[in-house]
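Hi Y.,

Following your request, here is the sequence exactly as I used it, all 296 residues.
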Amino acid sequence: MNALSREQKTVLSIAGALMLATGVVGGYGTYANIKAEFGRGATAAGMVAAGEGATLVLALVMVGVTLLGQAAPAPVRIGLWLAPVVASVVGLSVADDGTEAVIYGVSPMGMCVAAEGLGFLARRIVVYRTGTDAEAQRRNAEAVQQLAYHRAVADGHPDDKVRGKAEKAAWKLARKVGVGDLELGSRLVAVQRERLTGGADAALAGMFGTAVARPEMTGEVTGEVSEVTIARADTGRTEPVMPPVAELRKRARKLHREAVRSTRRPVTIKALQDAFGLSRREATELRREVLGEERS
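Below is the corresponding structure, written out as tokens. Let me know if you'd prefer a different format.
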């Protein structure tokens, strides 16, 4: 579980206080406007409670279910959109002229936006602390369920037109699967990072790999006889017996699989040099062939 730092707590507290102050000012503005039109404080208070107050209640409900690790029900999500609209429509209806209509229609937005902002901020804090986004999981679950249904219809429905529509709907839903899923995103990034690392390793080895210097040969002609005596500069060195090419590739693939199982990384050029007595260039070419066969 991630803990909030002192700086994060300070900034979030200031942001929450400003939102709360904006909501109070907006609610008071709506209260004053309605009281000026009807002359009754109780009516104005009821209007504020029905519009901005309802938005605040719905936002608190969403925060509560988010803290419990659950997704907000559909009525709550719909209400968060409708309550501000209702408050603005009421303000427009009681206005006497165009100027008052603009002011009365905009005033409820202060408390409504503050309530939704506080609710959204609280949900984001919960997601940061727990690493679980209930809303994203709900959306992904709905998308996967609909995708499974449309795929089944596209595969087995007797009507060709219905199958065609279901196929198109399935492809549209496929774009929504995994959107907003932080855990899925982190896993995909880890997989891609591992593949990019292996590819970059192979590319750099091919570009900057240098071959081991071959032993120099010395020749000496004695007298007039056309005989050449050749001596190796590294006499006494035992040359490894090179297996056939097919056997060499087979052993290299086996060595690569063992490296992946133990280190989760491809076999290195150094390991191929030590195992088969190859030069760096030869080991680089052999490694490229093994990795190329695995990718294909």
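Residues 188-234+243-295 form one domain.

Thanks again,
Q.
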